[in-house]
UniProtKB/TrEMBL annotation:
It comes from the Bacteria. Residues 1-147 form the N-acetyltransferase domain. The keyword Translocase does not apply. It comes from Micromonospora orduensis. Keywords: Acyltransferase, Transferase. One of its GO terms (molecular function) is N-acetyltransferase activity. The keyword Acyltransferase applies. This is Ribosomal-protein-alanine N-acetyltransferase. PROSITE patterns: GNAT (PS51186).
Length: 157
């Protein structure tokens, strides 16, 4: 498996996974086009043949926040560490950008994803009622704070 930039030609290939995992709340191709056009950090995980196994995206919220937009792995290849690798890539990008906070929303019934995020230091900070409108599912908002660098005026390293 390898990670590479998510490009426009991947959009058609990810749409079946998007529909399978997110159902009526799935993103449209235009939404992916918009994310890419705005220069957000998107990656695909591919197998040796270049087939997309999963994808993930991160968007900045200046001056010091980033939001995980999506992490998705095809059902037939889940539980192989692909989501973990994608998340680690997003967190490395957050560090490169100097983000103090990384946030995400996850369906309250997606316990497996919540456990993964918790292992990387994400903690629940709130609930958005009916956030996923197509299914009226609540979203758990989770946040991960960056490690202090020790070089800021308020850091006591």
């Amino acid at each position: 498996m390898r990670l590479e930039p998510f490009r426009w030609w991947h959009i058609d290939e990810v749409m079946p996974t998007e529909a399978d995992l997110f159902g009526p709340g799935k993103w449209s191709p235009a939404m992916f086009w918009n994310e890419l056009a705005n220069g957000h950090h998107y990656r695909v995980a591919t197998d040796d043949d270049g087939t997309v196994l999963g994808y993930a995206g991160l968007a900045g919220a200046p001056p010091d926040e980033v939001w995980v937009q999506v992490i998705a792995v095809r059902r037939d290849v889940q539980r192989r560490g692909i989501g973990r690798v994608l998340l680690e890539d997003l967190l490395a990008e957050a560090d490169r950008r100097g983000a103090r906070r990384t946030l995400l929303e996850v369906a309250v019934d997606n316990v497996a994803a919540q456990r993964l995020y918790a292992t990387y230091g994400f903690e629940p900070i709130g609930v958005r009622r009916g956030y996923y409108q197509a299914t009226n599912t609540d979203a758990l908002v989770m946040q991960r704070d960056a490690e202090p660098t020790g070089d800021g005026p308020h850091d006591h390293g």
